[in-house]
Amino acid sequence: MNRIYLDHAATSPMHPEVALAFSEALGTVFGNPSSIHAAGREARKALDDARRVLSGSINADDPEIIFTSGGTEADNLAIFGTAAKKEGRHIITSVIEHHAVLHACDKLERDGYEITRLPVDENGLVRAEDVKNALRDDTILVTIMLGNNEVGTVQPIAEIGALLKDTEVTFHTDAVQAYGVLPIDVEALQVDLLSVSAHKLNGPKGIGFLYQRKGTPLAPLLYGGEQERKRRAGTENVPAISAFAKAVAISQEAMEEKRALYNEFKQSFKAVLEQEGVEFIENGTRQLPHILNISIPGIDIEPFLMNLDLMGIHASSGSACTAGSIDPSHVLVAMYGEDADQIRNSIRFSFGIGLTHEQVTEAAAKTAQISKRLALK
After folding, report:
1. Which residue among 219, 260, 306, 321 is the active-site one?
2. To pair with 295 at 20 to 30 A between CA atoms, which of 84, 178, 271, 341?
């Protein structure tokens, strides 16, 4: 059976050139970057070269990049690191954030912080005006994601950044899902902290970074050595970091081409459903190009996904971090309410490397076939 992978928003396969760079670095760059001998200096150069690529990809300075174990650690470092350094006990976020943000805020709330969780409209968008109205004298942090991982909505981060620019409030955005498919400029967005993970853009798992604008207060989560300018202790994972930089370099070169291709995939997929007479509603607006989240009336998501899998189509009902959970998507609940049909009949298809137009149309045709069969039951 030919399998068609349409869950790139959950994780993406490693690009062949990235896998090669990873393998080569594993075998040759084994020194500790903190060591002063030749092997250490070689590792340090690889680290510095990678940091330069990553900082350049978001228009930042090299020292503003902190290597982490991925997006979750980067989000946690941004939130807990800010709370530990700033006076004030109020944080603003949204109800549709990734759980790496939501659960970190929940922990701070249990510790006595006040958390304002902003709503979204039916398109999954946060209103900048709501952020402005929620600000208080004791607000220390606003954390709003750049692109939603379930429905793909792109939030008005630059608009929020502009209204926070002349305040003492730290502004963090989780850019894990948007990085590599949208151009990102931290100066244009006016963010102070920004989280990224490599495995979403064809890099290795277990590596990411947090951008920290110069002068932004941040306490470390880990204590040990003086790596990452004393901001993140632990010997750096040089092979993964080198592979991460390779993935970023490739994604930056191909970004416009990828965005156009993924939008074509999205339109082709919807066109097949329409031709087959399948009724559906697209969830969200102003979406990331690689995410298509649709609601299909008359179906239940669990048997639908099982049938897709049996036919070789890999998709999901939303965030991979909640796989196996019986709880409905918190994003769809926020958009439509707890009793809405969309929380039980929505599915996410996400596109990425290696896909062809033929595979996308085949997947759409099988989706239509399953939809018609299950809707009759």
Report:
1. 321
2. 178
Q: Is the pLDDT of residue 284 over 80?
A: yes
Element (DSSP H or E) covering residue 230: helix 227-230
Of the candidates 122, 249, 242, 95, the residue with the CA atom closest to the CA atom of residue 180: 249
Which architecture, in CATH terms, is 4-12+254-375? Alpha-Beta Complex (3.90)
Instruction: Give the mean pLDDT of the chain.
Output: 96
What percentage of the chain exceeds 70 in pLDDT?
A: 97
Helices and strands, counts by H and E, the chain: 13, 12
Helix (H) or strand (E) holding 291: strand 291-295
pLDDT-derived band at 319, boundaries 50, 70, 90: low
What percent of the chain shows pLDDT beyond 90? 95
Q: Which helix (H) or strand (E) holds 159?
A: helix 157-164
CATH 3.90.1150.10 boundaries in the chain: 4-12+254-375
The Cβ of residue 306 has, within 10 Å, a number of other Cβ atoms equal to 11
Tokens 């020292």 sit at which residue?
63
Q: Does domain 16-250 sit in CATH 3.90.1150.10?
A: no
Q: 3-state DSSP call for residue 281?
A: strand
Q: For residue 362, what are the CA distances in angstroms to 2, 124, 179, 209, 272?
A: 11, 29, 28, 37, 9
- 321 among known catalytic residues: yes
**pTM exceeds 0.70, yes or no:** yes
The pLDDT tens digits of the residues spanning 329-367 come to 999 999 999 999 999 999 999 999 999 999 999 999 999
Beta pairing class for 90-94 and 114-118: parallel
Distance CA 244, CA 78 (A): 20
What is the pLDDT, as a whole number, of residue 320? 54
pLDDT at position 235: 97
CATH 3.40.640.10 residue window(s) in the chain: 16-250
193 CB-near residues (< 8 Å, 6+ apart): 78, 82, 170, 171, 172, 173, 210, 211, 212, 213, 216, 218
What is the helix (H) or strand (E) element at residue 174, kind and residue range? strand 170-174
The amino acid occupying position 239 is: P
